[in-house]
Automatic annotation (TrEMBL), chain A:
<dbReference type="Pfam" id="PF01899">
    <property type="entry name" value="MNHE"/>
</dbReference>
<dbReference type="GO" id="GO:0005886">
    <property type="term" value="C:plasma membrane"/>
</dbReference>
<comment type="similarity">
    <text>Belongs to the CPA3 antiporters (TC 2.A.63) subunit E family.</text>
</comment>
<keyword id="KW-1133">Transmembrane helix</keyword>
<dbReference type="GO" id="GO:0008324">
    <property type="term" value="F:monoatomic cation transmembrane transporter activity"/>
</dbReference>
<protein>
    <submittedName>
        <fullName>Multicomponent Na+:H+ antiporter subunit E</fullName>
    </submittedName>
</protein>
<keyword id="KW-0812">Transmembrane</keyword>
<keyword id="KW-0472">Membrane</keyword>
<keyword id="KW-1003">Cell membrane</keyword>
UniProtKB/TrEMBL annotation, chain B:
<dbReference type="GO" id="GO:0015385">
    <property type="term" value="F:sodium:proton antiporter activity"/>
</dbReference>
<dbReference type="InterPro" id="IPR005133">
    <property type="entry name" value="PhaG_MnhG_YufB"/>
</dbReference>
<feature type="transmembrane region" description="Helical">
    <location>
        <begin position="41"/>
        <end position="60"/>
    </location>
</feature>
<protein>
    <submittedName>
        <fullName>Multicomponent Na+:H+ antiporter subunit G</fullName>
    </submittedName>
</protein>
<feature type="transmembrane region" description="Helical">
    <location>
        <begin position="6"/>
        <end position="29"/>
    </location>
</feature>
<keyword id="KW-0472">Membrane</keyword>
<keyword id="KW-1133">Transmembrane helix</keyword>
<dbReference type="Pfam" id="PF03334">
    <property type="entry name" value="PhaG_MnhG_YufB"/>
</dbReference>
<keyword id="KW-0812">Transmembrane</keyword>
Length: 156, 126
């Protein structure tokens, strides 16, 4: 029920911000379309804690802030290497453990890896992630496991 | 005065964003193979688009346009990694590219091979 309410609110906000027309006719059409999409989402059985992770609402902002600073640093690193050219990189592939308790946690972890320039999650198999990294340092930083700990912290 | 400051902030942010876009493009051209090039594209996906949208936001003022810019930013940050992952996964699982005459471009196969992907010498033949 809470998940349905969450889908409904998000869709309603998207509709309201994108519309800009607030007459009775258009608002009721908007309500109709939102209700229709919620119904479709229910039929597809995708309204659950995975598509609407409201249990993470309080913890996500802190994690996003940390991730954002990480993305900043990684961007600078890759930009410098782009200007220095191919001699500055050491591409490698490695498998990284992902010991999150839930699938959602592993997906958040893999997405965070991809979102950080310099590392891309290529495959997610069981509880390991195959990662391609632009540099050996990038891969060993993932191996140090700080990001993994933080994602696990989200779940607790 | 305040208008000037806002214009300056958004100008600096836009300029930095453009510089990062340029760096991403440079990396895309200079890096040796598909996977490393994807990392260069990661710059334009994340910080560059973030800076450009943040540079546009002060110009939009408190309006619906601001909310729409925010939504664009959110969508980029959610779809970007999904697309990158799909590309990387397809590249790793897929066969080397098909050439028009049915022959595989040997150069491409070699370069991908250097990124630790095992490619059998004649697996490229179709």
């Amino acid at each position: 029920m809470r998940h349905t309410a969450s889908v409904f609110l998000i869709l309603a906000f998207i509709w309201l911000f994108n519309s800009g027309h607030y007459t009775a006719l258009l608002l009721s059409l908007g309500l109709l379309s939102v209700a229709f999409v919620v119904w479709i989402a229910h039929r597809m059985d995708i309204v659950d804690h995975e598509s609407q992770p409201i249990h993470l609402t309080l913890k996500l902002p802190g994690y996003y802030w940390w991730l954002f600073r990480k993305i900043l640093a990684a961007n600078l690193d890759v930009v410098i290497r782009a200007w220095r050219g191919p001699s500055a990189i050491s591409p490698c592939i490695g498998s990284i453990p992902a010991n999150q308790a839930t699938e959602l946690g592993r997906v958040i972890y893999a997405n965070s890896i991809t979102l950080t320039p310099g590392t891309v999650a290529m495959r997610l198999e069981g509880d390991t992630i195959i990662v391609h990294a632009l540099t050996r340092e990038g891969l060993s930083e993932l191996h140090s496991g700080e990001m993994e700990r933080r994602v696990r912290g989200l779940e607790e | 005065m305040i208008e000037n400051a806002v214009a300056a902030i958004s100008g600096v942010s836009l300029a930095l964003g453009c510089l990062l876009m340029l760096s991403g493009a440079l990396g895309l051209l200079r890096f040796p193979d598909f996977y490393t090039r994807m990392h260069a594209a990661g710059i334009t996906d994340t910080l560059a688009s973030f800076l450009i949208i943040c540079g546009l936001m002060p110009m939009a003022g408190w309006s619906l346009a601001l909310a729409k810019l925010g939504m664009i930013l959110l969508f980029i940050f959610f779809t970007g990694p999904t697309a990158s992952h799909a590309l990387a996964r397809a590249a790793q699982l897929g066969r080397p590219a098909l050439a028009v005459d049915g022959q595989v471009d040997a150069g491409v196969v070699e370069e991908v091979g250097s990124a630790a992907v095992e490619v059998e010498p004649d697996s490229g033949r179709i």
